[in-house]
Amino acid sequence: QRRHRTALNKRMNAQVKGALADVDAVVLVIEATGWRPEDEAVVQLLPEGTGLTVTVLRSGSALLHIPERDGARRVLGTPPKVWLGVPLIAQGRTIGVMVVQDYERAGAFTDRERRMLEFVSTQVAAAIDRRKSEEELRLAEKRNAAIIANAPDGIVLLDRGGRVLFGSPSAWRLMGVEEAGVVGLKAIDFIHEEDR
């Protein structure tokens, strides 16, 4: 399965490179916490909040803009002959925009390239979302470890068979034992016979 996925990735990369071979610039705009329509802070970073990127952010839909056909829009820098932007959507939220533009050929991008970029954007958004989830999990684990390490009460985690999997420093101190000698043993062994 891994070999199949690697082969598929190589084919996709070759197709994307072929389709975008003549692209002058690729722009990936991402706001770290994700963009929400009510979050105008992102919009304020762009001129007047009316640019093509903002349109894609707000609508959550791809936009193929050809100034000769659609009329000129205000852009930063040199106006392209064609502009194609697709949203990066993760968990139903637009978290950014992928943009390609060509400065020489108005016909450089069509619906075919839009569909391909939309597919690529799903993979990019999934990778960004996965990375963000991993970071959130790492921070939660770090926070929970600090809480457990500093809790005055003893905390012990047992498996279904009653064996000790983990204990807080307070638990070992309260039980008067060393962690190394307890993990893996049955918790019942630490309870006085009269209290069982």
Overall pLDDT level? 78
- Low-confidence blocks of residues: 22-35, 39-43
Sheet-strand content, in percent, reads 15-25%
Number of strands: 6
| Spatial order of strands in the largest sheet | 1-4-3-2
How many whole angstroms does the radius of gyration measure?
A: 27 Å
- Order of helical and strand elements: HEHHEHEEHEEH
Helicity level, as a percent range? 40-55%
Label the overall shape.
rod-shaped
Please explain how this structure is put together.
By secondary structure, this protein is α+β, with helices and mostly antiparallel strands. Helices cover 42% and strands 18% of the residues. A four-stranded antiparallel sheet has the order 1-4-3-2, with helices on both faces.
Describe, in short, the structure shown.
With 196 residues, this protein is an alpha+beta fold.
Which helices and strands occur, and which strands form pairs?
Blueprint: H1 2-19, E1 25-30, H2 40-44, H3 52-59, E2 63-65, H4 67-70, E3 82-90, E4 93-102, H5 111-150, E5 156-158, E6 164-167, H6 169-175
Antiparallel strand pairs: 1-4, 2-3, 3-4, 5-6
